[in-house]
Design goal:
By secondary structure, this protein is α+β, with helices and mostly antiparallel strands. It has four helices and nine strands, in the order E-H-H-E-E-E-E-E-H-E-E-E-H.
Length: 201
């Protein structure tokens, strides 16, 4: 396990424990911190009373010192498969893949194998860091099976946390090219939610 030591400084008392730890460590998401607390992986340095488990919503007290024990990655459920990937860019933290049409992103009922995740597992092998407790590539956004285009994949926990935040706050711009039948009668911008037709899917 990797252990982090965090002290509650002046001015940080009274915050939720999970929010404080996530905001202080920054490289671990609040959701992951919450699960670590629930699993008993977060303790007071001098030890909480025996049997007294910490709660994610517990309020912090000034000068408290917490130990956060992050376990090593566990094997992912999907198997690694040799699947051709069109890799546009790669470094130690991210992959940018040009996903081809017809490729499913996540294993799911009916598509347990042959997905982008299976291909990423094969490509990255043991170089991936633990993301969310699992030894797997961090899929931070999706494209439909029949949609082609660029996808960003996180290879480390800091990259995963930051990419998720960027998508949530719309700091990443996504552009799509659509194919239409006949000529549009008008030009302009569509600024409404777009969904699949309930009549002609």
């Amino acid at each position: 396990d990797i252990t982090y030591t965090v002290t509650v400084p002046v001015g940080k008392a009274g915050l939720r424990l999970d929010s404080f730890l996530a905001g202080t460590l920054k490289i671990i998401s609040r959701t992951r911190i919450k699960s670590l607390i629930d699993e008993g992986k977060v303790t007071l340095e001098h030890g909480a009373p025996e049997g007294d488990a910490l709660d994610p919503s517990r309020k912090t007290l000034e000068d408290e010192v917490f130990l956060i024990s992050v376990p090593p990655p566990v094997p992912a459920m999907p198997e690694a498969q040799l699947i051709p990937l069109d890799i546009v860019y790669e470094d130690k933290d991210i992959l940018v893949i040009n996903k081809q049409s017809g490729l499913v992103v996540h294993p799911a009922p009916g598509n347990e194998t042959g997905t982008l995740v299976n291909g990423i597992l094969f490509h990255c092998k043991d170089s991936l860091l633990g993301i969310g407790g699992f030894k797997r590539p961090g899929i931070v956004h999706r494209l439909d099976k029949n949609t082609s285009g660029l996808m960003i994949v996180a290879k480390s926990e800091p990259a995963h946390v930051n990419l998720v935040k960027m998508f949530q706050t719309h700091k990443l711009e996504r552009r799509y090219t659509a194919i239409v039948w006949n000529l549009p009668k008008k030009q302009g911008s569509i600024q409404k939610p777009i969904g699949r037709s309930t009549v002609n899917r």
